[in-house]
Design brief:
Layout: E1 10-13, H1 17-29, E2 35-38, H2 46-62, E3 67-69, H3 75-81, H4 89-107, E4 112-115, H5 125-138, E5 142-143, H6 152-161, H7 173-184
Length: about 180
């Protein structure tokens, strides 16, 4: 019997190259060829934003993955949209990004969206899934759910072997602050 190949046209929101390694590999093993999408206005400082983006651009070339780059260093927009409760900022951040991803996907013939953020054990997985599902429904496409977390350590190992730039915090100014507070203790 011939194996059916899934031709689902999927837009993969991509936060960075290290997190994308196993997401791309896993989807390809399923017969899904993802198209990467860079949109991360939350990343601070600009040098961090630039390092992550440049590493991803090069990695996408290395693995022959199409990558769409939304060139918008939108730190001000991100900070202005955060609720006064900084501890619950992640939900806003997820929604801000997933709405842009879903809108682009719908306007450009993609059938589904997913995100490399789904690989991180440090993200709020449920809130992220909720944001992806809500954004997908809003634009009439599918949220392609995959729990990539079991592949996190393997992906990080491969990223180190490939000498990919690896960040030490989620990306936003608040997660950077938390990183330094933890190091102080």
């Amino acid at each position: 019997m011939e194996k059916r190949v899934n031709k689902l046209k999927t837009l993969l929101h991509t936060c960075c190259a290290p997190c994308s390694v196993m997401c791309i590999d896993t989807l390809r093993k399923e017969g899904i060829e993802p198209v990467g999408f860079w949109y991360n206005p939350n990343i601070h400082p600009y040098t961090e934003y630039k390092a992550r983006k440049e590493t991803l651009v090069q990695y996408a070339k290395d693995v022959n993955m199409e990558l769409i780059v939304q060139e918008n260093y939108g730190l001000r927009e991100f900070i202005q949209g955060i609720p006064s409760d900084f501890n619950n900022r992640c939900g806003f951040c997820y929604s801000m990004r997933t709405d842009i991803v879903a809108e682009y996907a719908a306007k450009n013939g993609f059938e589904s969206i997913t995100s490399t953020l789904l690989i991180s054990p440090y993200q709020n997985h449920d809130a992220l899934c909720e944001a992806l599902d809500k954004s997908a429904k809003k634009y009439g496409i599918e949220f392609l759910y995959r729990d990539f977390r079991p592949y996190f350590r393997e992906g990080q190992k491969i990223a180190r072997e490939k000498n990919l730039y690896m960040q030490k915090y989620c990306g936003c100014i608040f997660s950077e602050e938390e990183r330094y507070r933890k190091n102080k203790k």
